Fold:
Amino acid sequence: QPQLVESGGGLVQPGGSLRLSCAASGGPFSLYKVGWFRQAPGKEREFVADIVMRTNRDVYADSVKGRFTISSDNAKNTHYLQMNSLKPEDTAVYYCTAGSAFAYNYWGQGTLVTVSS
Structure:
C-alpha cells in the first residue's frame, strides 16, 4: 500500500506563502484522488482540498478557496498544496491523504504550518 510523506511546513508571516509536498511511495499503485486535511490545536481535522487524478477536478474548502492550489506531478508521484496569502487561522498540522472515490484510505504523518508574526 502507498506511504505518504509530507514536507514543506514551517513558520511563515501572515500574507506569506508555503508549498507543501506529499511524496507517495510503495507502489506501483493507482490513486483515485489525493487530498489535504488540516487540524488546528483543539479542533477537529477538517478538509482543505482534493483532486481527482484522472480528471484533475479539484475541490476546496471555502476558507481556502482562491488562496490555496492543489496539484500533482504524476511522473514524480508527488502532490502539492500551494498556500498563498496565509492567515494566522491557517495554522495547523496539514495531512496528505489518498484513496478511492468513497474513502480516504491512506494518510501521511502530517507537517506543521505556523502563521505568525
About this structure: The first strand starts at residue 3 and ends at 7. The CA atoms of residues 94 and 111 lie 5 Å apart. The chain has a mean pLDDT of 94.
